[in-house]
Amino acid sequence: MSESITEPAAPPRRRGDRKSQIARIAADLFCERGYYTVGLGEIATEAGITGPAIYRHFRNKQAILAYATADLSAALERLTSPAARTGRSPGERLENIISEVVGLVVERRRSVQLYQWERRYLGSEDHDRFTAAIAALVDVVAELLGEVRPRLPAADHRTLASAALSAVASLSTHRTPLTARAATEGLRAVGLGVLATGLPPRLAGEPAQPAPEPAVGEFGSRRERLLAAALRPFRERGFHGVTMEDIGVAAGISGSSVYRHFPSKADLLAAVYYRAADRLTATTNAAIENAGEPGAVLRELVRAYVGFAFEHSDLAAVYLSEYENLPDDDRHTLRKVQREHVEQWVRLLTAVRENTRGAHARLVVHAALNIVHDLSMSRRRITDSAQVEYLVFAALAS
């Protein structure tokens, strides 16, 4: 899970295109605090203009988000253009495009995370362009990997490409202090390390889409029914896109009865978070309690975490995406839980690989976790839990 650590001061922003500058500032704020939490006044203040002046450039906040994602789409499209595919051999072209993606992520660290949640708030045309730009990047990396490693099964090309790009994009999910050089070198090594790994055959019969959490039966408690019913709506539409009445209807509980169990929607969300934290802790502790030496403990932790993400993808997705909407006290408490989970991974990694220390250890741990998150929670799964375990170890070994 992501930790919140103060990052070093960002480099000065470009002063050329005022509209682009405002959009990038807004994208940074959206990713840090949540789309609904950020107001136009905050964006204007950060951009150094008055509130009314922002309307000279954008009619509303939705238009700013659309512009920011279009700007990021254009940057991705430039990476995949024929002119950008430089290098004498497929291997050189593959390394070059990974380096270019790393450069983009390092430059826009605070806003790259748009790719994980933007679909909730964009119109269909803007969303389609953004999705197409990401898909085109995956396609180009997969195509080049196929030329470099022609003996790999075709399906593995795309799996490895997706995992490598998720590892690189992980820089946007945490605030570990890193110099631009350290981040660039570390992410490039992780991305190329993932592309070089091998995968076991994918198991037949694995579902192509994540299954929803099992519904609580009619004889289950109303509280449990509400918790189960909230997960998929929160995941698909976001905290602000769902009402308590929506959740009540999904749980078969109508009217004011919902509020007898949770005073507010934020309290219900907090209960979901504590449920996720408790289940994850119980799952990982049970897996590692008898594992023995650090290498075995790390293997069991990876297996348990990947299994949890695949089995409880709705719960895990909400746990990762709605943090800023928690009540303040709950947010601070759960932040400590998330940090401790990351530190557990870091301690094990440094015990197993003594040459991996400090900020780099956290960099590769977050890269590994982001691979799990993106591949297990994708609306159409292209891999299974066994393959993801291999991808995690490839990232950790970088």
From TrEMBL:
Domain HTH tetR-type: start-end pairs: 16-76, 220-280
Domain of life: Bacteria
Record protein name field: Transcriptional regulator, TetR family
ATP-binding found in the keyword field: no
The organism's taxonomic lineage, starting at the top: Bacteria, Bacillati, Actinomycetota, Actinomycetes, Pseudonocardiales
SUPFAM superfamilies from the UniProt entry: Homeodomain-like
Provenance organism: Amycolatopsis marina
InterPro entries: Homeodomain-like_sf, HTH-type_TetR-like_transc_reg, HTH_TetR, KstR2_TetR_C
Signal peptide (UniProt feature, chain positions): none
DNA-binding region: 39-58, 243-262
GO MF terms, alphabetically ordered: DNA-binding transcription factor activity; transcription cis-regulatory region binding
Alphabetized UniProt keyword annotations: DNA-binding, Transcription, Transcription regulation
